[in-house]
Design brief:
The protein has about 375 residues and is an alpha+beta fold. It contains 13 helices and 5 strands. Strands 1-2-3-5-4 form a 5-stranded mixed β-sheet, with helices on one face.
Length: about 375
Amino acid sequence: MNGSTWTSWPSREALTRAPQGRTRAAIARFVWAAVLAGLLWNAFADGRFALWQVAIGLAAAVSCGFAGRTYFRTTREHSLWPSLGMLVVLMAVAFVAREAGAEALGVTLWCGCAVVALERLPLSAAVPLTAAALIAYAVVKGDGWQTTAITTGSLCLGGYVLRLDAEARGSSRRLLAQERAAREAEAGAAALAERSRIAREIHDVLAHSLSAQLVHLEAARLLIEREPSTEFRDQVLERVAARSMAREGLAETRQALSALRGEMTPVEEFLRQLVADEPAAVTVSGERRPLSAEASQAVRRVAQEALTNARKHAPGAAVCVRLAYEADAVALEVRDSSGHRPAGELAVSGSGYGLLGMRERAELLGGTLEAGPEEEGFVVNLRVPA
């Protein structure tokens, strides 16, 4: 046995109990309660004990429950001195119980301390505590050296076997977690590869087509501007000037392609760029972190749509954009100071998306989107898991 075994803790996976269902947890609590009741009954069944002795026994039981739970928690956190303190408390309770006449309770506690020390502590700390507990057991029982040797040897062997079994279970749980993480990484890589393929297809077809349209529209605009000014010429030029719609479509297509490739700029940076030319302010709260492509796109689209609606229905109104990173979600609030305006105006907008479509996008992600007038203006609230 090498030196590190004596100074190292069992792994945290080994010291953490596997999740239990409600039925198994209820059964476990019932079994522990039955064992405790049996020990108390064995200690006080003959009725020769005074009321104060019974009170000491009950107090000892409560102390054991508290110290035991604390011991299991501190060992799971690899806190040595608190763990040793809890075992000392349990051994002291055993001594008090024995002095009060509850010898069975004291013996059980000493034996239990010996086993759980070997199971959950570094061996350099567990062996002295186990020896002290078993010496106390041997002095109290006095069953002869052969019986005592067999019992103490069995307890030591049982504690060490439990330690090895816990380590094996911890290793299995750790390997299972690693395999699950590897599978998730493999699935993520496959999804990213598929998104990249789709992005290339969209770029080759749609982005190139829009770029070519912009070039032809710009050439047409230059040619038309050379002609003498007439009403027909001005009407055609106005139509050709709608190339900004193609430019916006190309920009949004590129954003969608970046989302598919996982190359998007941070959401807060995008929001600041979005309101750069607007009477708007952006505030960000919470611990910033990367968002999934779906959540990021939802926030961006809703912000675009809300600002488009504000420009359309409340030109010049001040707009406040708030982005909040929550524990398991991201929330976006877009508020303008336009005063009251009907919620029905949000059905469609100039960008062609509409907050109704954004609400459907949020619901598909398991989130919510609410939009409506308030006292000082119109508010759009988005919340999606992230």
